[in-house]
Amino acid sequence: MFVLLNFLAVLAFILMLTVPALTEGNVTCSGTAMDWYTSQVGETACKTYERLRQICNSDFEVGVMSNTFPPDTCDEQISDCCCNSIAYALAMLCLNCQQNIGGGSGYDAPAGDYQLYLQGSRINSTCSPVQNQTLSTSIQTAVCNEEIKLFDSLYSLFWTDGSWYYMYTEQSISKAIASNNNNTFTHCASTTLNGTSTSSSGSSSSASSNLTSSHSSNLSGGAIGGIVVGAIVGVVATALLMWFCWWKRKEGRKATKPENKIEPFAQGEGRDRRGNYSTEVQAKSR
Length: 286
Ligand SMILES: *[C@@H]1O[C@H](CO)[C@@H](O)[C@H](O)[C@H]1NC(C)=O
Ligand SMILES: *[C@@H]1O[C@H](CO)[C@@H](O)[C@H](O)[C@H]1NC(C)=O
Ligand SMILES: *[C@@H]1O[C@H](CO)[C@@H](O)[C@H](O)[C@H]1NC(C)=O
Ligand SMILES: *[C@@H]1O[C@H](CO)[C@@H](O)[C@H](O)[C@H]1NC(C)=O
Ligand SMILES: *[C@@H]1O[C@H](CO)[C@@H](O)[C@H](O)[C@H]1NC(C)=O
Ligand SMILES: *[C@@H]1O[C@H](CO)[C@@H](O)[C@H](O)[C@H]1NC(C)=O
Fold this sequence. Notes:
The chain is an all-alpha fold. The protein folds into two domains: 1-25 and 220-254; 31-218, no CATH class. It is 59% helix and 0% strand. It has twelve helices and no strands. The chain has helices at residues 2-24, 35-41, 45-54, 85-99, 113-119, 137-145, 152-156, 166-179, 199-216, 221-255, 258-261, 265-285. Helix 1 (2-24) runs antiparallel to helix 10. The relative contact order is 0.12. Bound molecules: 2-acetamido-2-deoxy-beta-D-glucopyranose (6 copies). InterPro entries: Immunoregulatory_rcpt-like. It is found in: Membrane. Residues 1-23 form the signal peptide. It is a single-pass membrane protein. Residues 253-286 are annotated as: Disordered.
């Protein structure tokens, strides 16, 4: 019995580990090439992109970014979250994250790609209003409330012909990180590091340091959900096992009754099971 119990415990543990991996899926990078992003932000570019778009559509999930351009489209009816150059840049970074080719020259986008992203499945029109190099006030507020870290460089970098360049983006961000002492998320007070200003920055920095540690944790929402599911499965499996043990023991006690001893063991057990089953059914139907 203990062997079986151990086996089930191990099974539950494995489930706890694999379920998060399955639910993470498309937001994980397939390699280490974009660790420069993940180590600073505390999540992958795909996760940032997903969180940004979930402000407008809580059901949004990152799919597999297309490597025949555009990587994704802004097809939402409430399109404020994706109808901007920042969301587009995140989609391109997500493509590089999923493909793990950021280590080489990465995926660049040809001229006109940004416009295709904005157009989506619309005919002769784009989402509107288009926000280049900025977010609408309400989305920016939501980003700060949700403590979504958007590099300052994602606001400033822009190619008016609608192209996009991985190496240029990565190197610009790396340079900004180095020259600003990691203080590269300054569009929100909640993500701005302790700066040069007075008491107000002190309080905001203590809030942001708490936030940084919680965000750099490797467990994202999906992982936590997976662990919860795994734990529930484990508890249910243990409960089932305990019930099974109890039932088995009850069976064992019955088998020692004199009437059963007359018949061969295997037969007796089979009959007894059937008998037990029918009494259960009777009890239920009463
Ligand atoms: C990844 O995205 C594809 C669609 O692009 C979807 O079919 C798949 O279920 C997603 N995987 C996960 C784990 O969400
Ligand atoms: C799209 O634009 C083209 C050229 O401006 C025009 O000929 C065509 O009729 C438009 N299509 C629709 C569905 O509006
Ligand atoms: C945003 O940029 C695109 C690509 O350069 C351009 O076509 C569009 O007119 C711009 N929109 C605004 C509102 O600046
Ligand atoms: C910047 O961030 C990196 C990695 O997160 C860290 O190792 C480094 O100490 C930080 N530098 C400063 C000045 O905070
Ligand atoms: C904030 O900056 C001030 C002055 O630079 C410094 O004395 C203080 O320790 C900093 N606080 C934190 C939490 O880094
Ligand atoms: C942030 O951390 C400080 C000390 O580390 C603590 O006093 C404060 O309650 C924390 N704030 C939140 C919101 O967790």
